[in-house]
């Protein structure tokens, strides 16, 4: 690892706030998707695309992010991404067309945060990879929980448009507090840009890509449809919103502990297996014929531990599996490119299975089987300690 270089006193706060912006603008929307659908006179199930569009952006844009970050400097690139994210989030409230355009911009902005944050940590704080990854993953889970739960009562007391505007202000505040980091922005030299290995020809990198992609398939499917599954089971809209918030809140222990444990383990197979098994058990729980609020709280706890630990672990692996910030960015970009394209099929596939069968069972079974497969790929990725 490179030695720690000079950075702004606002860097750690910036990392925390970037975590808050990495999911909240997307994961809060399913809780108010019914209100949005009613406002624009479209079917609720058709708005699964509001989760799918960002995932497609993550996939298509991620591969070019490391190159742009090297050319402009990671700190400046993050600032531009936050500006795009703010504009996109605000646009979503105007009309149906701007909802789609804004969602596209939200996806592009978040893509840059997803890819560059591990590289920024590796570059600036190489001796604190575990703690810094835990920090932004906890922030990610905390703000996602607040957003997923609070957005429904805010929308009911005012409008869904006002609640989305509040999400936009979170992004704007993050941008303002990130600006001091621009003083330490460093553009990559042509030599540093051309260094590193070709991840597309690396077998371990491909295993990590599939592990990341299929686990994201499961996570975003859960985020998109868990409130709707709860409503179909007989829970009220407020209860389903609370379930969505609890799912994000319960993610905090896994998000915090997985990176810390991963940095202390020479082989992370037990951690991969544990997180995968929790996810599988969570979907088994959803398929059980129990339709009360308490059961959904329990199932959301199991799912949250499994999915959050898996995501946090993979984000840590981008740094732990590489020896230079350049390779960290390349592995992160490569895995998130095709990985998120795999993930994009999740909400769309499960929504279509529900529409075709009239039941969530087929979608739940499919998602559980995907969890089994991603666990296998995660275990296989641990056969070698580094990609480079």
TrEMBL record:
GO cellular component, one term: plasma membrane
Keyword Membrane: yes
Record's keyword terms, sorted: Membrane, Transmembrane, Transmembrane helix, Transport
Classification via InterPro entries: MFS, MFS_Cyanate_Porter, MFS_dom, MFS_trans_sf
Gene Ontology terms for molecular function: transmembrane transporter activity
Transmembrane segments: 47-69, 76-93, 99-121, 133-152, 164-184, 205-230, 242-262, 269-287, 293-318, 338-355, 361-380
Domain of life: Bacteria
Localization of this protein: Cell membrane
Membrane topology according to the record: Multi-pass membrane protein
Domain Major facilitator superfamily (MFS) profile span(s) in chain numbering: 7-383
Pfam families with a match to the protein in the record: MFS_1
Protein name: MFS transporter
Organism: Limosilactobacillus allomucosae
